[in-house]
């Protein structure tokens, strides 16, 4: 079983087997009750009346006792095949409960008795039904009576008997299934997700000595292997940063890692923790899909950083439309954080690529601060025109920004990026509490 989806499918198929067994028993019990109602509606009496006439004719013709026994055995066989003899399909119900449910015999008032040789089983607590039909007396003989008895165990009693193989199998299966379920969820799903969350937390703290080393080929195994590769890439990038001779380059790289990889590693850690704690399989799969998306974004950011460090050229003067990027990042943020987002954006605002990159880095850091520090429920994003350019504001309804937070690394990075593109960066208290971050940057090419 290569894939986690296949494993879960087999898991839940096995889970359904006891339920199917109970449903089958219930349906069988309903058919048994329906069969009893059919046998009580007069069709058995009609068959016995016809058989009694036939027996009388045979007796009048001088039939011997052995021939009468054969007739009785033939009658039993016909009753055990009631589709033809009684016009009902209940034969499988009777024969599944006992191989020979019917017994037939002829008797007189004086005690003379002729019975069919049928190896029928019986027990005092079985269900019993009896029918009697007088044999017509057209030859002046002593009157005979044709008797037919039915004896079968009830379906539920048969299921609960100690000798019932199905019941023993069901009990044994349930015990084994409960133990197997605990093992499967603990070691195949929850344990592995928990190790991913712990590793992601360590990587977010800068400890890359933790490796998942999951060699399974299912979805979780592939995710773990990709996370290990990502951790190795991040570790290599951090090592490269340590070897940079230029202080300015080291600071710039630190800003990039803080504003991209670290923020997404933090979000990745939250998604994996949520997946570990999810109560339903659907919610867990959604969280894992979000984690895979974050992992892809981290790898993309790392590739761009490595490209920049190698000095590979980029088209910094190309025009970029800011609005789709702002909108999609807000959608990702609200989906992952659970906060309510509101956006007031124009249709299109084009700026140079280096300006767009700085604006988006400041925007990402502002949203990350709302998620990590503000304890907010709502966030509002607005991009509005000004005489000197455009004003981008991010406002939340959280607990506000403390004095210590104003001088943190994230705030300093936003100020540095703003200065690099000639923008103005301001932090204010929100209208209803919380914090409002304002970035005023030079005007690009816009379309209304």
From TrEMBL:
The chain crosses the membrane at residues 167-185. The keyword Membrane applies. It is an enzyme of class 2 (transferase). It is found in: Membrane. PROSITE patterns: HAMP. Residues 187-239 form the HAMP domain. It comes from the Bacteria. Its EC number is 2.7.13.3. One of its GO terms (molecular function) is protein dimerization activity. It catalyses: ATP + protein L-histidine = ADP + protein N-phospho-L-histidine. InterPro entries: HAMP_dom, HATPase_C_sf, HATPase_dom, Sensor_HK_TwoCompSys, Sig_transdc_His_kin_sub3_dim/P. Keywords: ATP-binding, Kinase, Membrane, Nucleotide-binding, Phosphoprotein, Transferase, Transmembrane, Transmembrane helix, Two-component regulatory system. The keyword Cell division does not apply. GO terms for cellular component: membrane. This is histidine kinase.
């Amino acid at each position: 079983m290569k894939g986690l989806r296949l494993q879960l499918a087999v898991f839940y198929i096995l889970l359904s087997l006891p339920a199917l067994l109970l449903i089958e028993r219930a349906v069988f019990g309903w058919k048994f009750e329906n069969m009893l109602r059919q046998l009580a509606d007069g069709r058995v009496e009609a068959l016995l009346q016809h058989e009694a006439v036939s027996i009388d004719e045979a007796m009048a013709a001088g039939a011997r006792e052995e021939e009468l026994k054969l007739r009785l055995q033939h009658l039993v066989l016909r009753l055990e095949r009631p589709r033809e003899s009684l016009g009902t399909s209940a034969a499988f119900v009777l024969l599944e409960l006992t191989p020979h449910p019917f017994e037939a015999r002829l008797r007189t008032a004086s005690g003379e008795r002729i019975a069919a040789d049928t190896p029928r089983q019986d027990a005092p607590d079985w269900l019993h039904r009896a029918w009697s039909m007088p044999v017509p007396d057209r030859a002046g003989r002593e009157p005979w009576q044709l008797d037919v008895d039915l004896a079968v165990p009830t379906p539920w009693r048969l299921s609960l008997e100690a000798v019932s193989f199905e019941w023993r199998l069901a009990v044994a299966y349930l015990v084994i299934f409960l133990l197997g379920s605990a093992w499967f969820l603990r070691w195949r799903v929850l344990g592995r997700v928990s190790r991913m969350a712990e590793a992601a937390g360590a990587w977010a703290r800068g400890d890359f000595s933790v490796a998942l080393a999951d060699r399974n080929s299912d979805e979780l195994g592939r995710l773990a292997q990709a996370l290990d590769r990502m951790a190795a890439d991040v570790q290599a990038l951090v090592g490269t940063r340590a070897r940079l001779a230029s202080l300015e380059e080291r600071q710039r790289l630190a800003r990039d890692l803080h504003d991209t990889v670290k923020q997404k590693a933090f979000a990745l850690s939250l998604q994996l923790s949520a997946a570990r704690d999810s109560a339903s399989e659907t919610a867990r799969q959604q969280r894992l899909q979000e984690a895979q998306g974050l992992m892809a974004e981290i790898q993309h950011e790392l590739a761009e950083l490595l490209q920049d460090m190698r000095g590979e050229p980029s088209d910094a003067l190309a025009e970029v439309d800011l609005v789709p990027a702002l909108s999609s990042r807000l959608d990702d943020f609200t989906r992952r954080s659970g906060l309510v987002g509101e956006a007031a954006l124009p249709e299109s605002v084009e700026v140079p690529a280096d300006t767009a990159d700085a604006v988006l880095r400041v925007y990402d850091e502002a949203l990350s601060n709302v998620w990590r520090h503000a304890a907010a429920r709502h966030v509002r994003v607005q991009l509005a025109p000004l005489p000197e350019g455009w004003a981008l504001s991010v406002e939340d309804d959280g607990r506000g920004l403390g004095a210590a937070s104003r001088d943190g690394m994230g705030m300093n990075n936003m100020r540095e990026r703003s200065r690099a593109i000639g923008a103005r960066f301001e932090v204010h208290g929100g209208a209803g509490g919380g914090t409002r971050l304002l970035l005023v940057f030079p005007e690009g090419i816009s379309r209304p």
